[in-house]
Amino acid sequence: MSQYSPVNAERRSFVDLDRHFHEFTKEELADEELLAAYNEEHSWHPSLSWDELLKRKRIIVLASAGSGKTEEMEQRKKKLESERKHAFYVRLEELGQDGFVDLLKPNERQQFHEWQSAPSTPAWFFLDSVDELKLTQRTLESAFRHLTQALHKDLHRSHIIVSSRPTDWRPASDETKFREWLPLPAVLEENQASADEVFLAALSRRGLNDHESRKTSSEAQDQRVTTVLLLPFAERQIKNFARQWNVTNPDQFFQEITKNNAWSFARRPLDLIELISLN
After folding, report:
1. What does DSSP assign to residue 268?
2. Which of 35, 22, 26, 68 is nearest to 170 (CA)?
3. What is the domain partition of the chain in residue ranges?
4. Could you read off the pLDDT of 46-85 as tens digits, one per residue?
5. What topology does CATH give the domain 20-185+224-232?
6. Which of 94, 151, 244, 275 is the residue whose CA sits 20 to 30 A from 116?
7. Strand ranges (E), 92-215
8. Global pTM?
């Protein structure tokens, strides 16, 4: 690329770029070649934001190398904490060797025990990343077992997010281990009908049918592992990222990307940083 503007390639602070996710269908998950060979130019359609995604109980986040998944997870954990919620981040390769509580810093350990003492409060657990774990001699079972031992009776109110590169995730076998060691709750407390709802539903057959339909829908959602793809940067995100990294003329930078057909090198943070650093 030609020289487009003076650049000081120093990041000041994390800026939330509102990353979105494509939620995989059963058919897509069954196509392992699709997961292993997807590319940034594929027309994935965003379906979920972070806020929407974190309402789910069991989540698999697939993201390619350099996509920024680790920082996204770490920053999402910090955001939840800023909202006075309980959230924890650990690396799976470490969790495969040590107990979950042993990996926490003293203040995090205190927060974990405080959460355990608040039986109606949810918590979010970010487990990063399956591909790093598989480079070691440790297994998914050992990592999941250590977390299960720590959560025990609190699994039903735990939101668990596991990350992996698409090439290292096996939807059939790995998800089976996920379900076995960190089972989904059967019925959530908040989805149960109040006494008044049951009474009113009993007065109307249609009302009862509607209530049962809503309950079935909620329970079905609660029982599903959600597998998503962290989507590459859109145009607006590339511009915002460039501003964050002190590109003095983001619009001209954007034009240079188009002129040089460099979109495939601009849609992931790691590659975009390299482009920004070019003079």
Report:
1. S
2. 35
3. 20-185+224-232, 233-279
4. 689 999 999 999 999 999 888 899 999 999 999 999 999 9
5. Rossmann fold (3.40.50)
6. 94
7. 123-128, 158-164
8. 0.80
